[in-house]
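Let's practice the habit of predicting before peeking. Look at the sequence and jot down your guess about where helices and strands might fall. Then scroll down.
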Amino acid sequence: MKGITDIPGIQVGHATDLEGRTGVTVVLCEKGAVAGFDIGGSATGSSELDVMNPLHITSSIHAVTMAGGSAFGLEAACGVRRFLEQHGVGFPYGGSRIPIVPGMILFDLGFAKPGVRPTREMGETAAAAATDEAVVEGCVGAGTGATVGKLFGLARAMKGGIGSYTVPCGKAKVSAIVAVNAFGDVRDPASGKLLAGCRKSEKSRDLLDTEKALLAGARRENAVAPANTTLCVVATDAKLSKVGATRLAKRGQAGVLRALSPGHATVDGDVVIAMSCGEIVEDTDALGVAAAEAVGQSIVRAVKAARTMSGVPGLAR
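Done guessing? Here is the structure:
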């Protein structure tokens, strides 16, 4: 299993600034993908999402950009557009091409080096690095500055990152790639066990259990109010309309809720973009089940692959 690059036509590239502790991840489908989206939580940062609305005339997209940097990171999508135009990708107009590149961002400013944000050039670098080889996971690309379990701030948080997972579905496949930067903890959907999240103290690796703490009256620190959001791209080689892709994105959010504890918090954005890149006819409900599983397992893989950075502990050794 290679992750989301198991889907024919999908390529993934990362641009990682380890010193600045931020980055960009790009998912390319140069031939175009029918797409839909869904937003959970209340703290989303994005650009060009509306092109995926079933009422919008745009028929397909050519890439999705995920970046750190909060609103500043939206600049990275400009670099991806420039790269794709220069390589003849996009809708033809006159003598040029117009690539459609939705962008979405997560808030890593509290973890990243002050003043360092993803740039247009990083977007170009990520697009140029895109490949159909196995997805590199952990503290790379948009997951470089990602963290989880921030009820009491970064001092008791753990590292998040990039994860990707594929689920067979009849004759088709459904796969996901995620950048996990959640307010809540990460829970294994299969066992219910907490894997990573808010720790009981700064010196402990024992997990507090954010949901139980909230029920007991704990309240988040104001300083971490906007510092979250998990970004997801789901891709399939099944044939879907824009309505079908939108429904697939909504079903992908079920995977977010299975693996994040809690998911869709007020201070999370939790965006899922779904891309249909094939011609296989498959049951839409089955595809939805696969999307939820792919997203949930991708979240688990992200924290398992994340290593300790800047004093924030990770599960990877």
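How did you do? The longest strand covers residues 22-39.
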